[in-house]
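User: Hi! I have a protein structure encoded as tokens and I'd like to know what sequence might fold into it. I'm fairly new to this, so please keep things simple.
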């Protein structure tokens, strides 16, 4: 059976430092570990391009403007980037894609 790969290894020196920490030091240490994990996760995940997703969805056969707008609202509810400042431009692009113009 293969060993599981450890992502983070606690060495003896770190263990001794953690053991001697008081409440405030431990809280600061854990906050730093958490922030490092969050930033590493964000870098690994990359960015979600809402405009690209919507433009690719409209190209699918059977999905029109109304269905694409409903999907866009769902994406916003899920946390996608809001494109309100470009909504008119996007609507024109969606109409052009729906009619086959490019």
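Assistant: Happy to help. Inverse folding works backwards from shape to sequence: for each of the 102 positions I chose a residue that suits the local structure. Here it is:
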């Amino acid at each position: 059976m293969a060993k599981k790969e450890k992502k983070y290894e606690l060495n003896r020196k770190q263990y001794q430092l953690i053991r001697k920490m008081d409440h405030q030091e431990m809280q600061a240490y854990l906050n730093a570990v958490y922030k490092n994990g969050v930033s590493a996760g964000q870098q690994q995940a990359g960015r979600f391009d809402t405009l690209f997703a919507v433009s690719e969805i409209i190209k699918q056969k059977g999905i029109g403007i109304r269905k694409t707008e409903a999907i866009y609202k769902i994406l916003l509810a899920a946390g996608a980037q809001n494109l309100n400042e470009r909504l008119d431009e996007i609507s024109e692009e969606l109409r052009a894609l729906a009619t086959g113009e490019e």
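A useful reference point when you look it over: The CA atoms of residues 30 and 36 lie 10 Å apart. Feel free to ask if any position seems puzzling.
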